[in-house]
Amino acid sequence: MISGKAMAGKTVVKGRNILGRVYRCPVCGAELSVIKGGSGELKPICCNTEMIMLEPINTVYVCSVCRSELMVIKNGENLEPICCNKKMKIKTRLY
Ligand SMILES: [Zn+2]
Ligand SMILES: [Zn+2]
C-alpha cells in the first residue's frame, strides 16, 4: 500500500503518524491531515467518534532551498509547485 517510491529525496513513510495521512469523521465528514508526523498513538475524535484513517495520503512537496513545505489538499493533473525558482520535490505521496 505505501511504497517509498519518491522521485528524489527521502520518503517519510515510517512510523504511525505519516505526514499527509488523512482521517475522516464518519458522522459529520470532517477531515484531518497530519502535517507533522510523530510516533505517538494518534486517535483523533470528532462527534464523540474515533475518526477513520483513510487510504489516501496527501502529497507533500518540499523546497530544497528554503525547506518550505506544501500539502496538496485537492489534487490536479499537472501540479508543479515552484519555490525559490526551483521545482519542489515530493516528500510524501500515496503511490
Ligand atoms: Zn464529526
Ligand atoms: Zn523555497
Measured by DSSP, the beta-strand proportion falls in: 25-35%
Termini distance? Answer: 8 Å
Distinct ligands = zinc ion
Determine the oligomeric state from the structure.
single chain
Order of helices and strands: EEEEEEEEEE
Form type: elongated
User: Percentage of helical residues?
Assistant: under 10%
The parts where pLDDT drops under 50 for at least 5 residues are: 6-14
Total of helices: 0
Number of spatially distinct domains: 1
Strand pairing plus helix content: what structural class?
mainly beta
The radius of gyration over CA amounts to: 14 Å
Account of the 3D structure:
- With 95 residues, the protein is mostly beta strands.
- It has one domain.
- Helix content is 0%, strand content 33%.
- It has no helices and ten strands.
- The chain has a three-stranded antiparallel β-sheet, with no helix packed on it. Strands 7-6-10 form a three-stranded antiparallel β-sheet, with no helix packed on it.
- The protein binds zinc ion (2 copies).
- Residues 63, 65-66, 68, 83-84 line the site of one zinc ion (ZN).
- This is Desulfoferrodoxin N-terminal domain-containing protein.
Task: Describe, in short, the structure shown.
Residues 21-52 form the Desulfoferrodoxin N-terminal domain. The protein is mostly beta strands.
